[in-house]
Amino acid sequence: MLKEALALAKETWKEFQDDEAMQMSAALSYYALFSLLPLILLITALLGFALQVFPSLQSSQNALLDAVKVNFSAGLAGTLEDILAGVQQNAGAATWVGLITLLMGASGVFQQLDANFKTIWKVPKATDLTRRQMIGQMIRKKISSFLMVLAVGALLIISTAITGVTQALVSSTWGLLQVAQDSWLATLGGGAVAALVAFSLNVLIFLLVFKYLPDAKVHWRDIWPGALITALLWEAAKRLLALYIGNMAEKFSAYGAIGGVLIVVAWVYFSSLVLYLGAEFTYVSARRRRQRREELAGQRAQQAAPQQGA
Known about the structure:
mainly alpha; 10 helices; single chain
C-alpha cells in the first residue's frame, strides 16, 4: 500500500514537471491580470443592479469580504473592498452591452485553464479541420468559457449562501443548548462545522472541475480520489497563502495601488499550482485505475477462453 502510494506520488510529480505546470501557472496569472479587472467590473456591475433592487443584499457582499478575509488574507479582502467601493457607485450606469463586453474579457482566464487541462489530460490536438470546423470549435470554446464564468459566479453565490445558513444554524444550536457564543466550545465547534462545510464544498467543486473541464471522457469513479486529495491540498495551501500574503502585505503596500493587484496575482499563481498538482494526481490516479481494470478484464478473458473451448 505504501509502495503504491509512493509510486503514485512520484509519477504525479514527474507529470507535473513534464507538463511544465509552473509555467502554466505563470501563464494563468498573466491572463488573470488582464481578466481580473473585467471580472471585478462585471461582478460589481451585477452587484450594483442587485443592490438597487434588493438593498438587503449588502450583507451578502459583507459576508463575501469576510470569507475572503478568513480564508485568504485581510490584505486581499481590503483590496477587493476598495475596488468594490470605487466601482459600485457607477455600476448603475453599466449597460447590457457593457456587461457582455466585460464577460468576454473575463473569459480569457478560463480559456487558458481549458488549454492547460488539455495538456494535463493529454488531449490530442485536432488535425485536418476545415475552416468551418475551426470556426465552430472557436465559438464552442468561447461559449464554454462564458458558461464557466457564470458557473464560477453561481458557485460563489451558493457557497456564500450555504456558509451564511450554516453560521445561522450553528448560532441557533448554541442558543438552544444555552451555550455562550464566545465560549471555547462554541468557537471550536463553530470552526469545525465551518471547516467541514468548506471542505465538502471544495470536494464538490473539484469533482465538477475534473469531470467537465478536461476535453476528454472522464468517469466519476476515477476522479473522486483526486478531488478529495486536491481539496485537502487546497485547505492546507489556503492557510499557508494567508500567512504568506499577511507577512508580505507591508511589502506589497509599498507599491501603492498596484500592490493589491500583485497580491491577487500571487494568490492566482500559488492557487493554480495547487489546482494543477491536484489535476496531475487525478489524471495519474485515473490512468492507473483504468489500467488495472483493463488488466483484470484481460485476465478474466484469458480464464474464460479455456472454459469456452472445453
